[in-house]
## 1
Amino acid sequence: MTTLTLAKAVNEGLRRAMEEDSKVLVMGEDVGKLGGVFRVTDGLQKEFGEDRVIDTPLAESGIIGTAIGLALRGYRPVCEIQFDGFVFPAADQIITQLAKMPLRSLGAIKLPVVVRIPCGGGIGAVEHHSESPEAYFTHTAGLRVMACSNPADAYTMIQDAVRCDDPIIFFEPKRRYWDKAEVDLAAPGLPLDRARTVRQGSDVTLLAYGPMVKTCLSAAAAAEEEGRNVEVIDLRSLNPLDLDVLVESVTRTGRCVVVHEAPVFSGFGAELAARITEHCFYNLEAPVLRVGGFSTPYPPSRLEDHYLPDLDRVLDAVDRVFAY
Amino acid sequence: MIVTAASPQILRPPPSDQDLRSLLLIRHFELALLRLFEQGAVSGTTHTCLGQEYVPVALAPLLLDEDFVFSNHRGHGHFLARHAEPYGLLAEIMGREGALCGGVGGSQHVYHRRFLSTGVQGESLPVATGVALKLAGSGALACAYVGDGTWGEGAVYEALNMAALWRLPLLVVVEHNGIAQSTPTSAQLAGTIGARAAAFGVRHHRITSTDVEEIRAELAPLVAAVRSEPAPLVAEFVTHRIGPHSKGDDTRSPAEIERARRSDWHARYAAADPERFARIDQEQRAFVDRLVAEVAARPLATPAAPPALAEEPDRIAAAGATGRRP
């Protein structure tokens, strides 16, 4: 076992993937010499050279487009989008080319491109450094969307993402980059499209991913003191969705709260709530509730604690599902 | 001596039979498509390259099998000049058996060997840049066709910047036909394409000829330099679209369309060598008639199941739905 931060775990996972396959490339803004603003690619250029770890111009659309071209030549590019809010210029290439090209060619074109996006708030940064744009990509057919929540998963998930032949949007919870945990570098992870029950419980199911998993675990611990037995599921894969695990849990607990940082309105939680309702309707003791951000641009950093869902807001939703 | 654009010029050498065949195949293919749309035999939309056929035909022998070609919405000519697959292309457009991409790509999204088209303007350039990144030094190049309207798209400049910075074998072919759908170049392009290329230190060459041999003589050394240096090149063709943007949506005045027609290679080649031209024209017309009849009679394409992409949530839902009251 090795103690790793989440950022270092992704770094180690990328290193392992690059050692394993010489076709794996890393590219993005300041990923080489600097090692990325969060140092996730630290040391990789020194180890693998400038041909495999490419510092690009500030050109998100160009980065993803170039990665698609590299994938057409048999490479497996891992692109870093420096901050969540910078992915929008790349949306054109991601949505119109990366997601659609394999489908349009009936699978003849494989685009094993991983787009890594540090996401979410909580680091006292500005709006375009703190966003949660996952719903734009889960809405786009043809993309896998993954979100890691802890160092051990981050280490295996990034490797599985690189090995996968499908285009993947890979979200990393930036405020958890410095969280440490013991990681077994030899242990295989869960398959990349499987959810994980991170805490078992019998009274209510919390569905979360990325940064909110930790928040939900804290809420579950607090709820236990009030005699409520809370189950927490880390989705890990947003598309495809490991619905069996979710449905089994909610069928058992009868209550469900979905938690994410992104605005609730039209957020990914709406999809989860709808799916759970479709599958568990007769087992539900209460409507599926959603906890998330507000329908406003991400606020200035001194206000972000009011914006981000925290333990109290999760516990409030738990109280409300019990009040039905 | 007054020389008009339609005057027969002295051509050295005249176009080969093969070039005339290729030019006239594309001409009749496009005309046939417009007829098929009129008859309601094709759904969706299409963009024909009438008047611009000579551009890909001139480029054809300058490109190698190892090269990648990225095409755009007006791409049938680009494809037919490079690949002898008119049946596959028409079947793709008509969604019939034998379609190049199972009929799911259609007119604007053709993938065949190293040919790939997309209808969204400018998007191919960064992709071509990525392909060129790992072609540098191999002698092969990535060629991307764009129009003058495409120069309004930011992706063009992100790609040019990277291609220049990284010295990539990227050949950008600009079919500058003076009109972006309905908007004349004068209303949508500030400055010039040449000056924009120059700003990136990218070589630019403007071609006014519509003669395939003359164009090849001009471009051959420049394309060779793209491969050998390697370095990007913007080859800007001053060309004319004599048909509509799509189908029946030409907003130009009859006088403007007539001006475009006067530049058409067709009349000039026909006048230069009437007998040979008429023979090959008849041959290609008959070929396209047979092609259309055969492909139209084919059953609809039944593409295989979608590839193993992310599992559809809907499919999981269908499999796991429990619609019964417990």
## 2
Amino acid sequence: MANHLFIPLVSPLLGATLAVIFGRQRLVARAMVLASVLCNLGYSLWLLWLVGTQGRQVSQGGGWIAPFGISMVADGLGAIMLCVASVLMLATVAYSFFTLDPAYERYFYYPLLLLLLLGVSGAFLTGDIFNLYVWFEVLLMASFGLITLGGTRGQLEGGLKYMVLNLVGSTAFLIACGLLYGVVGTLNMAHIAERMASVREPGILTAVACMFLFAYGSKAAIVPLYFWLPTSYHTPPVAVTAIFSGLLTKVGAYSLYRVFGTVMQNELQHLAPLLLLIAGLTMVIGVLGAMAQMNVRRILSFHIVSQIGYTIMGLGLASAAGLAAGLLFTAHVMIVKAALFFIGGAAEQIYGTAEIKPMGGLARREPALAIFWFLGILSLAGIPPLSGFFGKLALLQVGVGQGAYLISAVAAGTSILTFFSMLKIWNEVFWKKAYADMSKLPRVGPGLLLPGAALVVVSLVAGLAASTLVDYSTLAGTQLFDQAGYIGAVCGADGCEAVYESALR
Amino acid sequence: MLIALVLLALASAPLGLLARREPRPLIGWLLALIPLALFAGLCSQLPTVLAGGRVDAALPWVPAMGLELRFALDGLSMLFALIITGIGVLILGYAGFYMDKDPGLGRFLATLILFMGAMLGLVLAGNVLTMFVFWELTSVTSYLLIGYKHDYPEARRGAQQSLLITGGGGLALLVGLLILGQAAQQAGVPATEAYRFDAIIGAGEAIRQSPLYAPAVWLVFLGCFTKSAQLPFHFWLPGAMQAPTPASAFLHSATMVKAGVYLLARLAPGLGGTALWHTTLILVGGATFVFGAIVACRQFDIKALLAYTTLSMLGGLVLLIGLGGDYGAEALAVNILAHALYKSALFMVAGIIDHEAGTRDLKRLGGMRAYMPITMVVAALALLSQMAIPVELGFVAKEWMLEAALESPQPAPLRFLGLAAILTAAVAYIVAGWRLFRNVFLGQPHPDVLQHHVEEPKFGMLVAPALPALLSLVLPVGFLPLVSQFLSPAAGAVLGEPLRFELYLYHGVTPALLLSLSAIVVGGLLATRERQIAALPGAPAWFNGGLLFDRLIDGMLAFATSLTRRTQVGRMRAYMLYSVLAFLGLVGLPFLLFGLGAVRVGADSDLHFYEIIATGLIPVGILATITARSRLGAIIAVGVVGAMVSLFFVLFSAPDLALTQLLIEVLSTVFLLLVFSVLPARFESLSPSWVRWRDAGIAIVFGALMTGLVLATATSELFPPLAPYFLANSLAEGKGANVVNVILVDFRGFDTMGEITVLFIAVLGIFGLLRFRRQVPIAVRRSQHAVIPGAPVGGAEAATPEEEPVKG
């Protein structure tokens, strides 16, 4: 029993509550928030080590034996995602400290951030499909609060679309849970996996699996379910967009990996061609959308969609190596994308707009900002030795190795288009001569620069020390694809069905 | 040793920033000590390499992916590495003088040194992935150098074109290399070694038989042709002349553009020998060779003229790899050396002229012999080598090239095509060289030039081009045996077997010599008419790779914009429609294909009439809601649906659920009434009727699908449910008789905690939403409206149309 798995849930919940209670004492509240995020970060690092050395960690909620209660499971995938989420949250909190209007603090901005972290952490650790739904609700609610906080017209309009389209996904998720329970008769992922493993032929469960694909796909913003994302992501403050870009779609992607990679492996084999098709379309349509935009945040938002395509490609390759490669890519993109939002946000602060046409001249004015931005886009485009190269290389290697040439070609082609559309920002915002007199514009302070710069440095270090990362993601991919091991860890060596039968006897 | 060399070069890049301060010219030569040290380090390995040996070094990076920092120094790598570091010394020193007034020199030199490290890594790499890492780095640093004067749109455009072309080619190359690795693995090479050059070359026989060979080679070709500016990707190279002249001299003539040639030469022993390989290389290389040479004769900008002769020569080198054979390999090595020497000198001379006379335009120069006689001599030495006039190194190189075509093992038509290309280019080179020399140094000075204070450049600047220009003369006259000894292992690496050859200036009257001399005679005759040749009508204006490429980009942007504008319409109705249609496609199709068999419909013997009534009232309520004309009517009708659902819970003995449902129904009715009190009492019909019918159809299909799904799953008897356990243990273990309650608060209490948290969050969110209004600065509000024409006022949405395609 690894009851410590509840720490990353208790800590943000407690932190959020205390921050609400001490809302008037700004410094106390901030200290609570920071302590809670640091606690999650420290814990997730320890968990990474623990899972790496001792394998999966399992705890049963309320002490009920496995298929009957709610299980918490941490494996390599969950640990990596938890860790990246904490890192991003730390950067976001730091960035918010420096950039945000104090009024946000009075209206529970930081508690909402922590509750978002709670929802995300819960989703990464749960071993129960309905419990996963609950965490989705938690993070949806928190994200809705964050996206509308500030109440400008654009925010409300974007927030409404965000909410409604996400509720469609959530509803599909809920219905799918019900339908799945109707057929399989259980909600514990390990138990579902065990029971579904015996159904080899495509049948009604394939339709149910597709419903999960729809539900998670709409969270992950795959084509054709991505419309909520570019509609809403450019409206809230930069810090919110950055953390959303790092976490929200990735929870959907995580769920796809968990449910199809571990739980419904037979269905994954059936759906693999469809997933690759979706992956290719998502990559291309996302990047085309980015090329059409002239606003820093919109361009980056469309790139989120495009890069989800790569993540789905890893899933569609339907092998442990494919999942590992996809995971490596996803972890990288979470960090770099948030970094780019932060740095782009700093440029936005200077000019007071995110439109790239009126900007210019920042390469001379803010060389540090320019250097980190350039490194960031290199990483995003997959140029060595930054982390993006390894994600791309891993995916292409597995794709070529498995003979999936078409999707590999699309992935390679998309990355040059990615580079192109990022260079557009570089050209317009940094290299182009400024139209106006720049001397009156505000300077970028260290608080604005550091969070993004730190994340870029993380990407660089991750690239230089890629061996550790690749080994860990390989471990995580193998663990994820090892269905029997998962069932054994949750329900014991004999499996869930044995526990079920002996309990009913 | 090798690792240290490469890493030293990369790590010393920040030292370039020293040149931000004065005295810049001195610091330039000081920084030249870095490449000098590297040059010396490489030279210390010469004995091993000349003896036919190889120096290896490897540092593991990501063993799981076969990625390592593996370096191997053989003859071919040595040739390139010495060129890179040797010319690097001259360029760094030269740049300090050339850009002595430029405050950005520090940034420039830092990038230049970084590039040099990357280039060194590229040619020393012993693993294709290692090579690729540095390959990309050279593309990126080249981008930064071309765009150095980024205030000018032309510089940005040139930089972007070069990066897109070489970067796109790089991706093709990456996929090609991965396929090669895959093919090597299929040939029995262990996965960890499959990406090493020697493993791939060793498995060459098996790879050539593999079906993966053709796609891999095509992709590698794409990578090499883009990097080395072969037709039809040549146009980025003239565009790259936006870079400051030292960068042009270093990257775009002597080193980076030869990376594609290097890779082809490196892989030739493994992948060569097939018709695909030789035919493609001869055709593409030959065409580029001739095209570049002819276009060069018509240029007016000195740098453009040099750029076209450079891309022409790159074509010549590719042609030589295509021709193959002993002579092909030897000629390749000689030509690489000869070209690096004379072309870097010429570029630096071009920079001197620009620096002193203030222009590079051949129409506005002239008579420079009076003002800078030494520069003229240097230029003449380099030009004579380029024109392949006897006793210069270029002459020897040209003769070997002709031998390669004459002795080529390729079938006759290809061989003669190659020969024709070489002769045509040789003639054109003479015209182009004469054109440059005459218009700059001879004749009368142009009035524009006289306004400048033109004088001989400082010694520190002049020495940089003078050295390679002198070498072009001194090497063939005095040191041919040494040069042959040095180049033999390089040629051997291209051929794939040890080789020893002797260069000579005169070896009796051979066909090659006669051809070479007759080309000089014809060239000389034509050169006297160079003005008329330049005035001949050229290709039509649209026939310009750069413009076509821009148009391709524009077309892609237009496509992207229209696609995005059509899909990202900004209306929620449309998004909902997409979502529902996606659902029908994603879930409905598999259900129709695989799930229909699971649907079981049969009369339920326990069915009571009140259940039928309650069920029947639900669709009635829904229909009434849809058709209601007044808001109040709609609210009431919705209430009926809710009430019936609550009734269901009662009928199936779930009183708590029924209570909850009723409560929610009441609350939502109250809310709806509150909201509707500020809206008009009656609905208005805004959609055309076909839209309503379409939506009705979609809704019905959706409802039918859900019904089918529920029927199929609810009647499933594949697996027994968990329910009996909860019934049995609710009282005993959960201490409660109401099973639903025990499930909610105990068995699955964790879910409930989460749901409570959701309510907590909702409260926080709504509080903020109601109370907090961020003030948007007026300037921002205005700019938003200004920038998004046609968007709904304050619209969050609407894909921004592009007013004009990206500049630069």
